[in-house]
Write a structure and sequence with these properties.
Number of helices: 6
Structural class: alpha+beta
Helix content: 25-40%
Radius of gyration: 16 Å
Bound molecules: zinc ion
Largest sheet: 3 strands, mixed
Strand content: 15-25%
Length: 166
């Protein structure tokens, strides 16, 4: 799937932020604060925060809301770990928890994520394996425990690089 120019520029901005080293990584939540008020984010939390800084959504404490949020109905309110629809559409994505392609060899031993077919058949992970495995962004961030640089590479590979034959 290739994004048009506007969406590609936005996603590219997000990828740059993930690589910037400015963001602390959290698991299983979009955003959380420690007792000193220092915030950390999962990768989709970083995406949400950037969208909020562009007025796409708003944040109150650790929760993101779309502008048509109805407080009585939970409508337009992000759940703990996935993107609001206004946010993923702003990036030109189609899912609240987008799938990204990670390198099989980058998946840590203890991760519950399934390895590529070849490694599975051999019954062992090859750390140099370059086969791609598709995982949800939250799965990459939480269960798999990939850092922001690795996740940034995976977003770039999945959404910004032309695929042969497409
Ligand atoms: Zn493999």
């Amino acid at each position: 799937m290739m994004l048009d120019q506007i969406h590609a520029a936005r996603l590219s901005g997000f990828i740059t932020e993930l690589r910037s080293g400015h963001w602390l990584q959290a698991q299983a939540v979009l955003r959380e604060e420690d007792h000193e008020g220092k915030a950390s984010y999962c990768c989709l939390g970083v995406a949400s925060e950037i969208a909020a800084s562009h007025g796409v959504c708003t944040r109150e404490d650790d929760t993101y809301y779309s502008h048509d949020h109805d407080p009585d109905e939970d409508e337009g309110e992000a759940n703990e770990s996935d993107l609001l629809w206004v946010v993923y559409e702003w990036y030109g994505l189609r899912e609240s928890n987008p799938k990204i392609k990670v390198l099989c060899g980058e998946i840590p031993d203890q991760a519950s994520v399934t390895l590529c077919e070849t490694c599975r058949r051999v019954g062992d992970r090859d750390v140099d394996c370059n086969n791609l495995v598709e995982v949800c962004a939250t799965e990459a961030n939480d269960e798999t425990g990939l850092d922001f640089n690795t996740i940034a590479d995976a977003f770039e590979r999945t959404y910004l690089q032309p695929v042969a034959g497409e």
